[in-house]
Amino acid sequence: MSAAQNPDDDLFDDPEEEEDDDEEGSAAGARCPICEMLAGECDHLVASIDLTYSEFIAGALFAQERVILDLLEHLAASDPDALKVAGAGPALEHVATLVKDEIEEGASPGDAVSIHYPQLMAVLSHMLQEDGQVTLTGTDAEADDDSAVENLWAQEPELIVEQLIERLQGFADEVDEAGHEE
Predict the structure, then answer these.
(1) Within a domain: 15
(2) Count of domains in the chain?
(3) 70: how many CB neighbours lie within 10 A of its CB?
């Protein structure tokens, strides 16, 4: 018979060891290409995106995560033709087409967006890099790790996030307006 696991067994683990793991996990121990400091020690990280799990880990974008994801999800569930008219770009139009196809096959809009979340994260990364103010560094999943992380850096990350929100909101406003005209 095996011994029952005691949840108190972890009480004697070294907390500094766990802090090191968390710091590395926040941006995969990456160094900033702007100041050469570790990701957690500088202010240039726009976003650290876990590509495997399609989630934000750290960066200026993390503070506005819900606003950005709500806008992206709204746009992904929008009419691809309206996105084209709004100038949202082919990557977002493609995701909207995939979502539209899922809905036509019987998925709810929420489920359809969830199915294509990895593509939506790729769209977000692409949009952040489009203007040339953001530098991408990536890390592949190591053998003992189960996810790959993409880090996006900029001289003024809060400004980049603000501009992204304004851009996404502008697309959403145009798409909504086009929907009301029909």
Answers:
(1) no
(2) 1
(3) 12
Contacts of 61 (CB under 8 A, 6+ apart): 46, 47, 68, 152, 157, 161, 164
Question: Which pLDDT value is given to residue 30?
Answer: 80
CA dihedral 86, 67, 150, 87 (to 10 degrees): 0
Q: Which of 22-26, 37-41, 101-105, 149-153 has the lowest mean pLDDT?
A: 22-26
CB 76 within 8 A of CB 113: yes
Output the CA angle 111-116-119, nearest 5 degrees: 160
pLDDT tens digits, one per residue of 12-47:
444 444 444 444 444 556 889 999 998 888 999 999
The boundaries of the domain holding residue 149 are: 44-177
In a domain? residue 99: yes
The answer to the question of residue 31 being in a domain is no
- The whole model's pTM is what? 0.79
